[in-house]
Write a structure and sequence with these properties.
It is built from four helices and six strands. With about 120 residues, it is α+β, with helices and mostly antiparallel strands. It has one domain: Beta Polymerase, domain 2 (2-Layer Sandwich), CATH 3.30.460.10. A six-stranded mixed beta sheet has the order 3-4-5-2-1-6. It is globular, with a radius of gyration of 13 Å. The protein starts with a helix and ends in a 7-residue tail after the last strand.
Amino acid sequence: MTQTERVRRATSIALAALDKKAQDLVALDVHAVSSVADTFILVTGTSDRHARSISDAIVEAVRADGEKPLGIEGYDEGRWVLIDLGDVIVHVFQLEVRKAYDLERLWSDAEPLEIGAAA
Protein backbone atom coordinates (compact mmCIF):
# COMPACT_ATOMS: atom_id res chain seq x y z
CA MET A 1 0.00 0.00 0.00
CA THR A 2 1.38 3.40 -0.94
CA GLN A 3 1.66 6.39 1.37
CA THR A 4 -1.16 8.09 -0.53
CA GLU A 5 -3.41 5.06 -0.06
CA ARG A 6 -2.56 4.91 3.66
CA VAL A 7 -3.46 8.59 4.05
CA ARG A 8 -6.71 8.22 2.10
CA ARG A 9 -7.78 5.22 4.14
CA ALA A 10 -6.82 6.79 7.46
CA THR A 11 -8.65 9.99 6.56
CA SER A 12 -11.85 8.11 5.75
CA ILE A 13 -11.71 6.26 9.06
CA ALA A 14 -10.77 9.42 10.98
CA LEU A 15 -13.70 11.35 9.53
CA ALA A 16 -16.11 8.59 10.58
CA ALA A 17 -14.69 8.62 14.12
CA LEU A 18 -14.62 12.40 14.39
CA ASP A 19 -18.20 12.61 13.15
CA LYS A 20 -19.10 10.77 16.37
CA LYS A 21 -17.00 13.20 18.44
CA ALA A 22 -14.03 10.86 18.99
CA GLN A 23 -11.25 12.56 20.93
CA ASP A 24 -7.45 12.65 20.65
CA LEU A 25 -7.18 10.96 17.26
CA VAL A 26 -3.70 9.69 16.42
CA ALA A 27 -2.76 7.88 13.19
CA LEU A 28 0.56 6.02 13.10
CA ASP A 29 2.30 4.73 10.00
CA VAL A 30 3.61 1.39 11.31
CA HIS A 31 4.39 -0.30 8.00
CA ALA A 32 8.17 -0.02 8.60
CA VAL A 33 8.05 -1.32 12.19
CA SER A 34 5.25 -3.90 12.17
CA SER A 35 4.28 -6.90 10.13
CA VAL A 36 0.75 -6.78 11.56
CA ALA A 37 -0.57 -3.70 9.74
CA ASP A 38 0.42 -0.57 7.85
CA THR A 39 -1.53 1.91 9.97
CA PHE A 40 -2.77 2.15 13.54
CA ILE A 41 -5.50 4.63 14.38
CA LEU A 42 -6.15 5.44 18.03
CA VAL A 43 -9.11 7.41 19.33
CA THR A 44 -10.75 7.99 22.69
CA GLY A 45 -14.42 7.75 23.60
CA THR A 46 -15.91 9.12 26.80
CA SER A 47 -17.92 6.03 27.79
CA ASP A 48 -18.66 2.48 26.70
CA ARG A 49 -21.66 3.71 24.72
CA HIS A 50 -19.54 6.40 23.03
CA ALA A 51 -16.78 3.88 22.16
CA ARG A 52 -19.37 1.57 20.58
CA SER A 53 -20.93 4.47 18.65
CA ILE A 54 -17.51 5.46 17.27
CA SER A 55 -16.81 1.83 16.37
CA ASP A 56 -20.16 1.47 14.62
CA ALA A 57 -19.49 4.60 12.55
CA ILE A 58 -16.08 3.30 11.49
CA VAL A 59 -17.48 -0.08 10.49
CA GLU A 60 -20.29 1.61 8.52
CA ALA A 61 -17.77 3.82 6.68
CA VAL A 62 -15.58 0.84 5.83
CA ARG A 63 -18.56 -1.14 4.56
CA ALA A 64 -19.67 1.85 2.46
CA ASP A 65 -16.25 1.61 0.78
CA GLY A 66 -17.00 -2.03 -0.09
CA GLU A 67 -14.88 -3.60 2.62
CA LYS A 68 -15.58 -5.37 5.87
CA PRO A 69 -13.67 -5.81 9.10
CA LEU A 70 -11.68 -8.99 9.57
CA GLY A 71 -12.56 -8.90 13.26
CA ILE A 72 -13.83 -6.75 16.10
CA GLU A 73 -12.79 -7.35 19.70
CA GLY A 74 -13.97 -5.72 22.93
CA TYR A 75 -17.17 -4.26 21.51
CA ASP A 76 -19.47 -5.58 24.25
CA GLU A 77 -17.41 -4.03 27.05
CA GLY A 78 -16.68 -0.84 25.12
CA ARG A 79 -13.50 -0.09 27.07
CA TRP A 80 -11.05 -0.93 24.26
CA VAL A 81 -12.59 -1.83 20.92
CA LEU A 82 -10.11 -3.18 18.37
CA ILE A 83 -11.25 -3.15 14.75
CA ASP A 84 -9.04 -5.23 12.45
CA LEU A 85 -9.28 -3.94 8.89
CA GLY A 86 -6.27 -5.91 7.66
CA ASP A 87 -3.84 -3.16 6.74
CA VAL A 88 -5.38 -0.78 9.30
CA ILE A 89 -5.96 -1.54 12.97
CA VAL A 90 -8.27 0.86 14.81
CA HIS A 91 -8.19 1.16 18.60
CA VAL A 92 -11.16 2.88 20.24
CA PHE A 93 -10.38 3.41 23.91
CA GLN A 94 -11.91 4.87 26.99
CA LEU A 95 -9.44 7.35 28.45
CA GLU A 96 -8.21 5.32 31.43
CA VAL A 97 -7.56 2.27 29.25
CA ARG A 98 -5.71 4.34 26.65
CA LYS A 99 -3.51 5.82 29.38
CA ALA A 100 -2.84 2.39 30.90
CA TYR A 101 -1.70 0.75 27.65
CA ASP A 102 -0.04 3.87 26.18
CA LEU A 103 0.23 2.50 22.65
CA GLU A 104 1.69 5.78 21.43
CA ARG A 105 4.74 5.12 23.61
CA LEU A 106 4.85 1.44 22.69
CA TRP A 107 4.86 2.32 18.98
CA SER A 108 7.03 5.44 19.35
CA ASP A 109 9.25 4.23 16.47
CA ALA A 110 6.29 4.67 14.11
CA GLU A 111 5.90 7.89 12.16
CA PRO A 112 2.75 9.93 12.74
CA LEU A 113 0.56 9.75 9.66
CA GLU A 114 -0.54 13.16 8.48
CA ILE A 115 -4.15 12.54 7.57
CA GLY A 116 -6.24 14.76 5.34
CA ALA A 117 -6.80 18.36 6.35
CA ALA A 118 -10.55 17.80 6.47
CA ALA A 119 -10.12 15.48 9.45
